[in-house]
Amino acid sequence: MSDKQNSFIQVEHLQQYFPAGGFGRNKKYIQAVDDVSFTISKGETLGLVGESGCGKTTTGRTLLRLYEPTGGRFVYDGNVIFDVDKKQFVDMLPYRKRMQIVFQDPYASLDPRMTVGDIVGEAIDVHKMAANKQERYEIIIEMLRRVGLNSEHANRYPHEFSGGQRQRVGIARALAVRPEFIVCDEPISALDVSIQAQMINMFEDLQEEMGLTYLFIAHDLSAVKHISNRIGVMYLGRMVELADSYELITRPLHPYTKSLISAIPIADPKIAKESKRIALQGDVPSPLNPPSGCRFRTRCPYADEKCAQETPKWREVERGHFSACHHIDKLD
Amino acid sequence: MSEYLVDIKNERLSFFTPAGEVKALNDVSIHLKEGEVLGIVGESGSGKSVTAYSLMGLTAYPGKLIGGSLYFNGHQVDQMTDKEMRKIRGNEISIIFQDPMTSLNPVYTIGNQIMEAILLHTDKSKEQARERAKELLELVGINEPDKRLKQYPHELSGGMRQRVMIAIALACEPKLLIADEPTTALDVTIQAQILELMMDLKKKLGMAIIMITHDLGVVASMCDRIAVMYAGKVIEYGTADDIFYNPKHQYTKGLIRSIPRIDAKEHERLIPIEGTPVDMLNPPKGCPFAPRCEECMKICLREMPPVTDLGDVHYTQCWLIQKEEMEKGAAK
Amino acid sequence: MKENPVSFQLKLNPEDFLPATQEEKQSQVIMRESVSFWKDGGRRLVKNKVAMVSIVVIILVMIFSFIVPSFYPYSYKDQIKGANNLAPMQYSEEEQAKIDAGESVFPHIFGTDKMGRDYAIRVMMGSRISLLVGLIATGIILIIGSAYGSIAAFFGGWVDLVMMRIVDIIYTIPDILLIVLLSFALKEPLGHLKDVPGFAWVNVVGENLISIFVVFALLYWVGMARMVRSQVLMLKESEYVTAARALGVGSGKIIKRHLLTNCIGTLIVTTTLQIPSSIFTESFLSFLGMGVAVPLPSLGSLASDAINGMNTYPYLLFIPALLISLIILSFNLLGDGLRDAFDPKLKN
After folding, report:
1. Element spanning C280, H or E
2. Exposed, middle or buried, A262 (CB in 10 Å: 0-12/13-18/19+)?
3. What pLDDT, on the 0 to 100 scale, is given for residue C1?
4. Does C238 contact A93 at a Cβ distance shorter than 8 Å?
5. Which chain C residues are Cβ-neighbours of A160 within 8 angstroms?
6. What ipTM score was computed for the predicted complex, to two decimals?
């Protein structure tokens, strides 16, 4: 890969297993993320989609070292933050200022006992970004203003706000440390439809104003397609496809991506009634005991012997278009 | 006898909370013929679920019906006693809920719960009920019904559980199925399966469906009629084509405009509806949407617009339309 | 077109259809009055009649036991000659003589005990001791329990396992036995301690009471620790804690700022309910003769002393017993009221 050198964020073979009971040889693991690799350039938005339990949230949180990864390597702006082979201690505090996260649930992600001003101000205190109270207050107001709130809101408690406004507070908290990279963990899926568009626009505006890089996690492919430059599709802990957004939607090179696109209900009665869905059979298997070989094979219409025996290679099928499937040629 | 299966006229329902009266439904009128699918869309708190629940006589404390009349299949629901209501519930009207995880009782088997619904409303023997339960499971696309009947809810996946919920709801071949966000908690590919199943069942059994959702995509592909609710009012009602191709109310227009389209070729900035949802404890004096409306006029802030009929079954509540119609009238 | 009758009833002017300004639109959006957690809970508490009555009773008992004794004419340890076993409002011969001589003598409202001490002041001092023991013991329990529980829950894994097994072991120790053993074991060292300058108070309080405190500190916090642990286990998974970790906030600060402040509702309730149980334990021990040192009274020891003369002087038993019941009942009712007001799980 030629762009490996100048990529801002570089994730190689990331693995995250969570212990799930059992002892010794019988010890079981939830294989939440397995062998996921991708890069993000500065100022880019990488979308991450997949169904619940596919490991997209875990990937985002592992990047921030909120979970200790069990394998792989992670390079941030030229600095190795994690490398499973060379066990080295990295003080995360300076990076906490550069990487931030916005959460899905605007009700659970704000401390109900703190005022909005203190929620935003906590980051300023931790990183000692303000010399005095006055300066701290000014930064808080500046951040609230950026997300479309005002100084009147600073002394109020989270429960006095609507979902959309709370999500804005959550974003202001993440912005307070002036980060370069933000993991947006399903930031719009809990919001009302009429508010989602406001949020998407705000994410775009903030990216432009502050030069942010996003990892945008969502299960709503239409929203992800709108905001992302490139999209990665995950299934059961593995990345199955990664490509430019428009390319991915129009020419998917993995049967899972294809069925995912066709399953999206389109808000247009005529198109909706005409369009044919590729109905996937069955449910997602358990990550405790994923299928051998290709993990999608149990639901894939093209699956054969080979899929059960061999794990398909993650390869660059076309320039910038990655996929992991044995039967790419059978898709049209 | 009314020509409609469901005929709600000027329903008013308030929740008397310690903080004050919340007018959850304010002059709601909805009607639906046999075998039709009605979609109720709106944001959280707009009163879409309350409307459907009140039709089943399931208004939660401290809610109270304070005006209007509700007819279902020739019964006047608002005049019925609880005992009479119980005969209809689960028999002529059934409901499926959003969260299939919590709506099944974890300590009983699937078979037990389906049979309970059958035995409650018919005088079938236990053996016959079991046969019927097997039929129902096959009907909702669950393989090996014999095995499934003996399983407990936690042994099934989310999609499976929702199928079981549908099977329970259909136990007595109801005339009306109320689906309260039936796919919101499910993944996209599973959502597609469930929606398809519901449409199939509708064709087979000829029941009417009230589909409560916030997802315009779901409504577009399924519904004949659509009611758009905002702050306890039906602000626009019409056929799917009316609503999607000829929306009249500013909120409906804004809603359709604000969702990102998966089939968009260029990156277009979204046009959101500005502002925050209505605080139902302190609603605006005039039209509830006025503070967020781009075309807001002075009268909108003062008076609630009257209902404007736009032909067959399309009507809306907006001063702009009223103004247009009056100008047309004056020109004549 | 059907004309809507409404449009005729309303007088519509052409200006009405002019676009509204931004300010006009904004004036319709009213931001609700800001309500903090304390205000909100306080408001609900005030509405609860039972809890309010309990608060009044507790305040009255506190005035009775902390303020009244300071200007009461009798002392809890002075024995009045010839005034043994007086009935309520009865005077001794000597006092009667004084009254006859025109002097005014403050009546023995509750009579006197068999040693001629005014019983009213002894009851006041008794409830003061009982309340103090209840409050201090609860304070000790609160501090140890919440610190221990939150640390165990927050760090989890091995730390949690070891800490909670210690709790399990402490649960199995019979508390009364330990108090008896401790008060014997502590007698020696405390006896030396009271001769050390600055530690004279040990003599007044008595070894027994100190050993009660020690036992509370050693044993009784386990319930509180379990409570706090279960709360913190739940809270530490919440996203705002993850957000704080992502911001780089340290563990101690997370426990203090986010976890304990969010258990505060439960803490208030558990603490309030712990007070009567501490008072009860103290009274029970004093009743068995293992409580405060003579001549200091506590409600339990007063009741215990009165047992012997129960048939002749029943009021000596009734008064402290009634007071114990009253204090415990009002703290329990207040605790229930606080739970309704502050515990978010019951919030609708």
Report:
1. helix C264-287
2. middle
3. 39
4. no
5. 31-32, 34-35
6. 0.85
